[in-house]
Design a protein that fits this description.
The chain is α/β, with parallel strands linked by helices. Helices cover about 55% and strands about 15% of the residues. Strand 7, helix 5 and strand 8 form a beta-alpha-beta unit. Helix 6 crosses helix 10. The mean pLDDT is about 95.
Length: about 280
């Protein structure tokens, strides 16, 4: 099986490592605009060979693991170059724009729109880790538009990597992911900004920041080059989620100003059930 990873960073690199361990007949090729990334991926054993777009006609599987704006730019070219038995899937955090983009492409049936809900705040080939996708959810959109035989090929990969599958239409995906992923990243970035602006002494931040701050602001270490296009593509849903989040923050501030601590307690208590929801998901 010839697998071509376009973008050998965290997600693409982690998939490459697991595919090599789960498919003994797999040869993993790397395609990346960054030559240093390709060299690093080779040295780390993430890929076995370098490749270019001109080689894609040989591929059994093509994985697009690039920022969502780059994905929009190159996906039509990728579909133009693949063979008749090739399945292509992306791993991006927005699904409606890409599904709309290739809706009329002659090789639409070779594409599967996917979003593995997995990752860390790190990027580049060195961020790749084994078993990143074990037990994680992979959302697939418009599966009915992918050839059934090619669906089977992609689903075998996902199953071997240990992912759970959930099917969703792209508009619903982008709406829900704005709340549970995109909003949390914005919150982390803006919390980090607030602290940096007010705490001028970096040593104070280091000494006084507890595990709560560290875990909350962790996502602020994520790549702006990756997240800016995500916010751009999902602007409508992100703005709506921000409006609701800001309204809740404003209400909480007003309760404090009013010395209404019974209401503050009830507000926090009502949200404690998120612990049960998340523990149920992890099971």
């Amino acid at each position: 099986m010839k697998v071509y990873i376009i973008g050998v960073g965290l997600i693409g690199g982690s998939m490459a490592l697991d595919i090599q361990s789960q498919f003994t007949n797999a040869t993993v090729f790397g395609v990346d605009a960054n030559e240093n990334h390709l060299e690093e991926a080779l040295q780390l054993g993430i890929i076995q060979q370098q490749a270019t777009f001109e080689d894609l006609h040989q591929a059994d599987v093509v994985i697009l693991s690039v920022p969502v704006d780059v994905c929009l730019a190159i996906l039509p070219q990728v579909l133009d170059k693949i063979g008749e038995q090739t399945i292509v899937f992306d791993v991006g955090s927005t699904k409606l724009p890409i599904c709309e983009l290739i809706a009329e492409h002659p090789k639409r049936s070779h594409f599967m729109a996917t979003h593995p809900i997995a990752g860390t705040e790190f990027s580049g080939p060195s961020a790749a880790v084994r078993n990143l996708f074990q037990g994680k959810t992979n959302i697939i959109c418009e599966v009915e538009k992918t050839s059934f035989k090619l669906q089977e090929k992609a689903l075998e990969v996902f199953q071997k990597l240990g992912m759970r599958i959930r099917y969703m239409n792209p508009k619903s995906h982008d709406k829900h992911i704005a709340y549970v992923s995109h909003l949390s990243h914005i919150s982390a970035f803006m919390l980090g900004k607030t602290v940096i602006e007010k705490e001028k002494d970096e040593r104070d931040i280091f000494d006084m920041a507890g595990s709560g701050f560290e875990s909350t602001v962790r996502l602020a270490k994520s790549s702006p080059a990756m997240w800016t296009p995500i916010f751009q593509q999902n602007k409508k849903q992100v703005v709506k989620s921000l409006e609701e989040y800001i309204a809740n923050l404003t209400q909480f501030k007003e309760l404090l100003e009013q010395d209404n601590y019974d209401a503050v307690f009830k507000e926090m208590q009502s949200v404690n059930k998120i612990r049960e929801i998340l523990s149920g998901i992890k099971k």
